[in-house]
Design brief:
binds 2-amino-2-deoxy-6-O-phosphono-alpha-D-glucopyranose
């Protein structure tokens, strides 16, 4: 089932998403959080840092697993997702680095790394709350159009469209964006007990409508979320422009 919260700015999006994370940690202090990169979750991470500093959320027992990582970027590369997570969250909250997992894009044996990542998620008891963004082509994590819904962690070729979208972080040169990534599969994402999808901006309005109101179809990977029992979509009004939303969902 999909619930909607429609907000009028990014700060409010961060606030509502942080409420969900805080509620999850309050209920289960050693929760496993599935985390995402991209610009959309930044206000969430900012708000979590604020609440942690204010003593409102306790991260000391929390464990995190990120959706994805570029292949070939070391963890100290400023565009690696490990670096992003440290900069925006991990280095600013009292979380044990041992409890923060991302796939290792430098692993010698990438398929062994993928298996190890799945095993870690399993060992930690699965994901309690997964934070997701969405790409303009409907990708979640790096599960690009055409992804098989049952896959677990695997290596993907990043689509040309996504490389162009992410070129802004690589000196505006799509060729500098790594050609591959390791990503949790849709199988991992769908196994999360709860999902919160964050979506912002007019440029995501059409794909959000196709994902949530169209057919469930691997060509729009995020459409699989219609089959999940507990999804909350927090979107701004621009991103929700093509969806009919009940008044009650407007914040
Ligand atoms: C990347 C990430 C996705 C993210 C997407 C959207 O490709 N792999 O997990 O959802 O970008 O990013 P943004 O929030 O910046 O639009």
């Amino acid at each position: 089932m999909i619930q909607y919260t429609i907000v009028d700015n990014m700060e409010t999006m961060g606030y509502w998403a942080a409420d969900m994370v805080a509620e999850q940690i309050g209920r289960k202090p050693d929760s496993v959080l599935g985390l995402a990169t991209g610009s959309t979750p930044l206000p969430l991470y900012g708000e979590l840092v604020r609440r942690s500093e204010a003593g409102e959320v306790d991260f000391t027992a929390v464990r995190t697993v990120n959706l994805d990582e570029y292949v070939g970027l070391p963890s100290d590369h400023p565009q690696s997702y490990r670096y992003f997570m440290r900069e925006h969250l991990f280095d600013r909250i009292p979380i044990d680095p041992e409890n923060t997992a991302l796939p290792d894009g430098m692993a010698q044996d990438l398929s062994a790394e993928c298996r190890a990542y799945d095993q870690l998620i399993e060992k930690w008891g699965g994901i309690d709350l997964q934070v997701l963004g969405i790409g303009h082509n409907g990708h979640i994590g790096f599960n690009e159009p055409g992804s098989v819904f049952t896959l677990k962690t695997h290596v993907v070729d990043i689509s040309e469209r996504t490389r162009i979208a992410n070129a802004r972080f690589f000196g505006d040169d799509p060729q500098k964006v790594p050609a591959q990534a390791i990503t949790m599969g849709i199988g991992n994402i769908m196994a999360a007990r709860k999902i919160v999808l964050l979506v912002s901006g007019r440029s995501k309005a059409e794909i959000l409508e196709r994902a949530l109101c169209g057919d469930v179809n691997p060509l729009v990977p995020a459409s699989v979320l219609q089959l999940h029992p507990d999804v909350t979509v927090i979107a701004d009004q621009q991103a929700a422009a093509c969806i009919e939303i009940p008044e009650a969902a407007m914040i």
